[in-house]
Amino acid sequence: MNTVAESRLKHAGSLSKNPRLARWLRVHRDGTVSVYSGKVEIGQGILTALAQIAAEELEIAPTRIRMVAADTDASPDEGVTSGSLSIQDSGAALRRACAQARTLLLERAAERLAVSTADLRVEDGAVQARGRSTSFWECADDALFDCEVDETAVLKSPRQYRVVGKSAQRLDLPDKVAGRPRFIQDMAPPGMLYGRVVRPAYSFSALASLDDGKVKATPGVVAVVRDGGFVGVIAEREEVAISAQGVLRRAASWKDADPLPQDVHAWLKEHAVEHRVISEKADAVAQSQGTKTIEASYTKSYISHAPIGPSCAIAQFQGDKLLVWSHSQGIFNLRRDLAMALGMREDAIVVRHAEGSGCYGHNGADDVALDAALLARAAGGRPVQVQWMRDDEFAWAPCGPAMALTLRASLATDGSIVNWQHELWSNGHSGRPGRSDNPALVAAWHLARPFTRPTAVNMPLPAGAADRNAVPLYDFPNQRVVNHYVREMPVRTSALRSLGAYANVFAIECFMDELAEATGSDPVEYRLRHLKDPRASAVIESVARRANWRDWTPGEGRGHGIAFAKYKNLGAYCAVVAEVEVEHEVRVKRLLLAVDVGLIINPDGVINQIEGGAIQSTSWTLKEQAKLDARGITSLGWEDYPILKFSEVPAVEVELISRPELPSVGAGEAAQGPTGAAIANAVAHALGLRVRDLPLTPERVIAAIERR
Amino acid sequence: MADPVRLSVNGVERAVAADPDTPLLYALRNDLGLKGTRFGCGSGQCGACFVLIDGHAVPSCDTPLWSAAGKKITTVEGLGEDGNLHPLQRAFLAEQAAQCGYCTSGILVRAAMLLSANPRPTEAEVRAALDRNLCRCGSHNRMVRAVLRAAAEMKP
Fold this sequence. Notes:
The complex is a heterodimer.
Chain A: E1 25-27, E2 33-36, H1 46-58, E3 65-68, H2 86-113, E4 121-123, E5 126-129, E6 132-135, H3 136-139, H4 173-178, E7 193-197, E8 204-209, H5 213-216, E9 221-227, E10 230-235, H6 238-251, E11 253-256, H7 264-271, E12 274-281, H8 284-288, E13 292-300, E14 312-318, E15 321-326, H9 331-342, E16 349-353, H10 365-376, E17 384-387, H11 390-396, E18 403-411, E19 417-427, E20 478-486, H12 501-518, H13 523-529, H14 534-546, E21 558-566, E22 573-582, E23 586-596, H15 603-623, E24 651-656, H16 672-687, H17 698-707
Parallel strand pairs in A: 2-3, 7-17, 15-16, 19-20, 23-24
Antiparallel strand pairs in A: 1-2, 4-5, 5-6, 7-10, 8-11, 9-10, 12-20, 13-18, 14-15, 14-17, 18-19, 21-22, 22-23
Helix pairs in contact in A: 1-2, 9-10, 12-16, 15-16
Chain B: E1 5-9, E2 12-16, H1 24-31, E3 50-53, E4 56-59, H2 65-68, E5 72-74, H3 76-79, H4 87-94, H5 104-117, H6 123-129, H7 140-154
Parallel strand pairs in B: 1-5
Antiparallel strand pairs in B: 1-2, 3-4, 3-5
Helix pairs in contact in B: 4-7
């Protein structure tokens, strides 16, 4: 295993794209340090953890660190804040940049004091030697960091850490708890106008007709903007823009697009166009020991992102330049697609990140930025803020894709699995901006000169996308995993927290329980028996011990279940035990989790992310599916798209297994798959029968009971 | 434009020059600069825009200005003040009871109403009281602990 102390990786994290030291930090005369990360705060607390890393290597108080919101003019380009990679990408880069910055500052200080660096006494940036003193704040200037990051610089050993590894309070929460303006929705640059876009709640091929005369004549309406099928309105007051949006929606008629399939999972299986074998292992001797074959099929519906605050952006033209504030996960990619859609040069656009409502993947953040830019063209240089309404978000943001899965296994007489087959059918899980010849932004597809809507694709393994975590971590002698890719995309799909891992882990871990049951094995023992990775076994054993697994007594309608995954087969290890009560409705009473993320930067931050992931996954698993009819998504509000309520949230108990000698991996998505599977296994335990289709709604539970 | 609507917000008399049918939310945010109350759904189903009107938590997104006139409105900004936060706000920080924080204001407002009526709620009572507030990040349990912590701290 590669340890932190040994890691002398060429181009750590995001340094290969951003090798200049000055890109990462600036030390100021007032005793503060600006730290520039290309990763953005999306409610996960990343800026707090990155500030800890910077403070640790600089050996200064964390309160001196100012995390600068990402900006295409000033920040390193670190791609997209996604995939639980920010600690690996930005953390690793900042660690080296700050270590080197400290070395340079000490050398400069020694020069000033005419001593050797070994003679310096340093405390929180204050430097003393032989009765004289200086400081980092005096020594720093712009020229000092005008060099490449030295990737061989010596880093602190984790044993010396004083800031990293200790829980830090989130930097952004004091504002949010006091109700101070903090979100992009709260910004109001001088002269700002309010915009809304006018779309039907379903896919359309064209705008058939629209009489906008009445709205144009409404006091306070600044302009109705039309470009082909793109329609928007800007007004002096927000409520006027919203009313105008309603009037225009009712006045417009739209030509329908092709109807949507009714049985999505059957449709997926009929429309797959690529059939990729992503993992294959063969052992004829083991294969011949198989005496019994078992097969099961599972499904997952489309899931909506459903942030509490709908997506929002502000755009302003300043002469030929466009300034955009966005809560996008990838401001550089957004800038690229905005340039394409608007026919502008990229260097004429600046995108600045501003915090939005919680983000769990590719939601409407990027789309609404183009909406705002198109409306800002008609605003005479004034900034325009556009916030989507609740139904805009449900109707137009991408969904996490529906998936169908079939698993098959051969068992030897001793119960061991000698052959494992996993097939999945899905659309692509990434339709993000920055990756296609056409803008991945809704409005671009509706302009008078429209762009083609890009098709969602999958990133390559080992991280994968639809096939993320489809290759089991268990050790089977024969194995075949096939990803059936569906290109045609009736419902717009893209990345939702953990991508395909949620459904793949659900299927794998449910199937492991089905096989354990078929062989009369204990689910914990059965997993351990097929695992070779000691870190995997450790989280399973630990959570089973805490849950009192072997001595737990089920009662009438009570069950427990376990599940495990190593996220992406590259990241965090997470094992979950779920305890449920089932009558017609599933009530998750308690979730216990054990997690190994290697070196932990901010323990409470990791726990918060794991708790949140587990609760969100509980909501997905029990309740969530975007409802469809032939025209489009019909779940356009909370009454049609219920999520878990306070009184339904289980107790969640998280244990972190600390591995300070091992590299840090992200925590944000680790709980999604195993939580869903553990709940399904607990439901099967409680009922004595299995529901294989997500979500585990009362209708499905009742139907399963009636089939019994 | 009709006469300005007179509002009492966080103990201060304010006049808002807007149509009396304007939802209170937009007057608070855009006319009075009180951005802590946030838009979530526009139909009173998520709680992000809760404010107290005469002590009751109501969704400001579908409360017209005229109906709030002459009543006592308290927003999240009125629960405490800089340097003297409400015990609920202190407890939310102590418990780090948020992730994105977008729903936080509405939850604080609803919890403040609960503690006025029931200073020593059980955990189940806290959860029941917050059932009309949605949180998507999964910070529920931390928020419940924070409300119980605040209740303990406020105990006479």
